[in-house]
Design a protein that fits this description.
With about 210 residues, the protein is α/β, with parallel strands linked by helices. It has a single domain (about 5-205), classed as Alpha/Beta hydrolase fold, catalytic domain (Rossmann fold). The chain has seven helices and six strands. The protein has helices at about 20-25, 45-60, 70-75, 100-105, 110-120, 170-175, 195-205; strands at about 5-10, 30-35, 65-70, 85-90, 135-140, 180-185. A six-stranded parallel β-sheet has the order 2-1-3-4-5-6, sandwiched between helices. The radius of gyration is 16 Å and the shape is globular.
Length: about 210
């Protein structure tokens, strides 16, 4: 049975942020599903429970793949329900080791108000489970971009010489057990729209590798 590709957006974003990537995948013969979840309102545990029920209803026993952006990668790590048959996962700019920026702002009341419980949880990755299927990570390295406001503000918190996408450091994306890893010249906000990223995503979902031959 052909897997359904689940697109999970990042914190304070919506399903529309993944639409261009979804269109690319559909053009290449993959069926996608996306849903805007209330990323700013609840904890990761709550969001995982709610997303699990949606996927169980939508997938009906069908195998699943996932493509995630930023906090969406953390969310999929919490989707271990045995009713979900995960096959492959591609994480785009995930704060897999926690976020330096979130850790620096976690006590700021404005940050906690705007980004909510899940945003605060990004400060500490020590208790997050491993992904529920073989996974790849793609990290961005364009640290300054007009389209990424954070890159001009808190993005400056990264030490000189640190590779980052304006929001997440390359080292923060890495996780033990990765099946594949790549760096691309893309900013955090729109990494999913980079042509190189889209081609790598489709390749991994089909083959489980970033090697093209």
């Amino acid at each position: 049975m052909t897997p359904l590709v689940v697109l999970l957006h990042g914190l304070a974003r919506g399903r529309g942020s993944m639409e261009k990537l979804g269109a690319y995948l559909r053009e290449h013969g993959l069926e996608t599903w996306s849903h805007t979840y209330p990323s700013r309102k609840h904890s990761l545990a709550y969001l995982a429970t709610a997303m699990t029920e949606l996927l169980v209803e939508r997938a009906a026993g069908r195998p699943l793949c996932a493509v995630t952006h930023s906090m969406g990668g953390v969310l999929v790590r919490h989707l271990h329900d045995p009713r979900l048959q995960w096959q492959r996962i591609v994480m785009l700019a995930p704060p897999n080791r926690g976020s330096r920026i979130a850790a620096g702002l976690v006590r700021n009341p404005v940050f906690r108000w705007f980004y909510g419980p899940a945003g605060a949880e990004l400060a500490d990755a020590s208790r997050w489970p491993a992904p529920p299927a073989p996974f790849a990570v793609i990290a961005g390295t364009r640290h300054l971009a007009v389209s990424n406001v954070a890159s001009w503000t808190v993005g400056r918190w990264f030490p000189a010489g640190t590779a980052h996408d304006g929001t997440v450091a390359v080292e923060e994306t890495k996780l033990e057990g990765m099946a594949a890893f790549a760096e691309v010249d893309a900013t955090h906000t729109w990494i999913m729209n980079a042509p190189r990223v889209q081609s790598l995503v489709a390749l991994f979902l089909r083959t489980g590798s970033f090697a093209s031959g």
